[in-house]
Structure formats: structure tokens, C-alpha cells
Sequence to fold (253 residues):
Amino acid sequence: MNDTQLLRYSRHILLDDIGIEGQERLLAAHAVIIGAGGLGSPAALYLAASGVGRITLVDDDTVDLTNLQRQVMHTTERIGMPKVESGRAALHAINPEVEVIALCERADAARLLELARHASVVLDCSDNFATRHAVNRACVATGTPLVAGAAIRFDGQLSVFDMRQETCPCYACVFPEDSGFEDIACSTMGVFAPLVGIVGAVQAAEALKLIMGVGQPLAGRLLMLDGRAMEWTSIGAARNPACPVCAERPAHV
Fold:
């Protein structure tokens, strides 16, 4: 690290659990963020500010006026701009040293597999089950740690799915594709603005911990937030040995 980086990241370096070695791991890391909206905004901003060297944003949507109530990476002046381009501008404004790759597309299975294969960690900040399951399959296949979050109305949830841990479940173990879960859009049900900030920030924290090997990750636990009461609940999430996605784990485990 140069003198400017030592100063920029000094508050991380002062932490015994991080230090210079941990910060260098962040600088060498590549985080892929699926979704540049309510969850992706705070997650991306914190990863960039923390010094993650390369961040890939994946989203096929454009900035809309209705987004600005909660999607803090975007501004009024950037309405109509692709969210990934708006996000790149925001991340470079906070940390110009970060390499930001903006992919304005709805990534298919092949693209997700390619992205996961070259990522240190993947953050699922999407808003639908089809995408979440597609991202999960890519991370299971490549052994890439996945930090998944969701938020609607006043309720949030998140977990870490890390196939490098033999007993850790994948997303499909906890939320099977055939379970009948319905997608609920915030465009029809609404969402409390700070809720996505809280969940997205925790996603960033878990991603940073995974990259640096710091602390205990949220693997094997589902963390739920009741925003009305501001109460967190943590429940165990077990691996399903018959899971059609992760039962036969690749050799990386």
C-alpha cells in the first residue's frame, strides 16, 4: 500500500483483526453484486469505501424517480441512466481507486457461472426468487461464498451460504424452488427506506469478513429483522442432504 492508502484505510488498519494484511486482502478482492437497487446501493458503497479492489455491478434496470426513496447510490440527476452506470459514478466518487465493472444486463446461468468463478464473494441483492436461485446454483458450482439479503415492507432477512463449509446449507436448502414462495414486489407492497440500508450494510459486513477471514460468518444461520420493533431473530439453517442443488457437492468442498 502507498501512503495515501495507508491514510485512507487507517481506521481499518488500527483494528487488530484487520491490520495491513487484512486491508491488502480487500484491495486484492473481487466482489460481484447482483442488483444495484435498495440492497445493492449500501452494500456497494461500503465495499468501495472499505477498499475492495474490484466490484462488478450487475443490473439491467434504469434509475427511476420511485427508486430514490431508498436506493441511495443514485441521484435525481441520474434518473433514466442505467443503474450500473449510476452506481459506478457513485463508487468512483467515494473511492476513485476501486475498479468498477458495470454490466447492464440480466445475467443468465452461463454469465452468473462466469462471474462467480472469478469472484472472491457474491452478494445477492436481487428482488426475485428466480434470480436468487440462479445465483445460488452458480455459487454452489464454483464454491464461491454467497451473501444473500432480502427486504420488503418492514421485514428483512439475510444469510451466508458458503459451500467451502461441508455442513453449510445452500440457498435452496433453506428456500426450495418448489416451496411455493411468492415474489412480493416493493412497487406493490412498499418498503421502509432505512430497512434496505440496514440489510445491505450487514451484507457488506459479511462480505468483508469473508474476504478477510475475520470473525464468525453468518453461515448456517438465517438472520431476520422486524423493522417495526427493531428486533433481530437468528435461527439455525440446516443443510438438506437431499437438496437437488448442493447434495452432490463439487470437489472444492
Summary: The first helix runs from residue 3 to 8. The chain has a mean pLDDT of 94. The first strand starts at residue 30 and ends at 34. The chain is about 35% helix and 20% strand.
